[in-house]
Amino acid sequence: MNIERALQLLKEKGYKRTRQRERMLEIFTGQDHYIAAKAILKKIQEDFPSVSFDTIYRNLYLLTDEEILEATELEGEKHFRLACDTYGHHHHFICTDCGKTKSIAFCPMEQVNENLAEYEVENHKFEIYGKCPQCQV
Amino acid sequence: MNIERALQLLKEKGYKRTRQRERMLEIFTGQDHYIAAKAILKKIQEDFPSVSFDTIYRNLYLLTDEEILEATELEGEKHFRLACDTYGHHHHFICTDCGKTKSIAFCPMEQVNENLAEYEVENHKFEIYGKCPQCQV
DNA sequence: AAATAATTCATAATCATTACGATTTAAAAT
DNA sequence: ATTTTAAATCGTAATGATTATGAATTATTT
User: Fold this and answer.
1) B44 and B60 Cβ atoms separated by less than 8 Å
2) Is the Cβ atom of A57 within 7 Å of strand C at any atom?
3) Which of A12, B21, B30, B43 shows its CA 20 to 30 Å from the CA of A57?
4) The CATH number of B3-82 is which of 3.30.70.1120, 1.10.10.10, 3.20.20.30, 3.30.360.10?
5) Residue B87: pLDDT above 80?
6) pTM of the model
7) CB neighbourhood size of A67 (10 A)
């Protein structure tokens, strides 16, 4: 995902192009880290000191719904990153210090041979946690 | 995990045997469901109307640290269940309605062949979400 | 039965998140 | 270029889960 494509997607859906949204996308661009909602807020306040929680959260969820961002919950806080498009469905190693991610192509759902016939599977989560090379002691 | 063993473990560590703790363990016994902290509180209040948040949360975390309970975070709320001892390390299907679980013996870490040599893996999470037979529409 | 150390209770504080009404602003229509 | 209008933002307050605190209580040890 890149800014151009994100803005295009938003336009197609009739959403307005606001400076706050552009700035949010800029913050995410080029990052392969998950970032806490709180951290996004702080970053944006550097340019828009009066931006409110509402704006940030509303937009984070909007962008996630539109699949421009990916979300995950780490230690009770929601974190976000630009949706990856290196390959399709995949998972992540996530650094518990800095949020840096490494993509894991393998999806465990292919291998589960437990009998789940009577269960209606809707979703799954596979994440590996640890320290990236930069964050090791 | 069963009550006797849990109480034994607590005793060995020098923790006191309180009525509240016994009641908590009773509530979990025989359940293969993840239960929200809030729900535990309500249940215990039936017997101890004046029990406080503090008691519940402190004990849920204590029991989790002692590996008597297992915890997971579902929709921003922590949920708990008795640690399974059907077999060793494993994962769960979790019903998003009632919290009922089904054990999944397969662990995806065995299959990951991405090169994580430079990454210090500490932990992982694999959960499948959906509706159990009882909760399907 | 007394001592002591852990535990609980009652309540307040914190932290992330969500909600709301008034105001502003981007984009469409004139 | 101006007006219109619907969406978005701001400022602030509310909510909900969780954590913290200090005094009172209780299980265990002496």
Assistant:
1) no
2) yes
3) A12
4) 1.10.10.10
5) no
6) 0.91
7) 11
